[in-house]
Fold each of these.
Amino acid sequence: MASSNKNQTIDSQYIITEYMHYVLENDSYPKSVYRFCKDSKIKEEDFYKFFGSLDSVNKGIWNTFFSTTIDAMNNNKEYEGLSSKDKMLTFFYTFFELLTLNRSYVLLTLQYHEMPLKNIGQLKGLRKHIKGFAKELIEVDNGDKLFNITKNPVSVYSEGAWFQFLFLLKFWMDDDSADFEKTDIAIEKSVNTVFDLFDNTPLTNVLDFGKFLWKEKTMWN
């Protein structure tokens, strides 16, 4: 077993960076923690201080994408004063800019398995984070509405935000426009659509939600 570099601090971010590098260099996931640690010169005991498995690293990368996005937004002094719609726009713009910086890795891992559900499994933690972020925005806007009948169901809208993200992720993966301009347009149109529903049409049943998803699906066909 190769030992860790004595001058290098081994933390979760270092392991994630080395893991992404490994995947890109080998065009595949490492076969085992042992193989990854040996090739990356990381002690296995150092690896297990931060991750219990290689699968947890896969999920941790997406969690890091989310936390990095949130940190970047919060570091902008103007962010706190934005409307909920503009906060959601800022989130998606920032998140997909970060994905673009790591596009080779993201495309490889999201297309690695022939069965799409296996690829989506790494997004489990991200789903929780995005739904939580959307839930906070919805609750703020609901707090400004005087009557319960005009308020929107938080669980349905937070789930809608997740499906909206999946729609945008697939769109971004297929986007071959310069500087991914079409993805930026798709983000703007989809966020405007969901907040138009939020502001003007209380979403009280699954049928309304289904109509929204269908509109999202067919918008760019």
Amino acid sequence: MKKNLYIVSIGSNIEPQDNTMKVVEILQKEQEIIDQSPFEKTEPVGFKEQPDFLNGAVYIRSRMEPKEFKLYLKEVEKRLKRVKGKNKSGPRTMDLDIILCNGKIIHQDFYTATYIQKPIHYLIQKHSIQIEG
């Protein structure tokens, strides 16, 4: 079975230190983490009346295909008590998004969100990942 390579963006602003540590522990137990970026405190974008975020990224090798892996990440968010409210930019315990899949950028926020770009670029450069397109 083929293994896929993913870079996943991680963000939290509800108990961010605890929740980012918990999500990395979960992913280490259930997937193969190749590396992770440093985590940085960032200001909220859009809805400003909320705490700052802690953002980073992980580089993962997985047997899961992209659709299955995306569903898996949403299930991990739920385990960390992620509640999706009406405000898409509101506070959250955990936000996990696949940004790269096998060297291809698949999440458009990569092009506009510096809080996503910085940790992703860290992993791309460190591992000499060739980007398609």
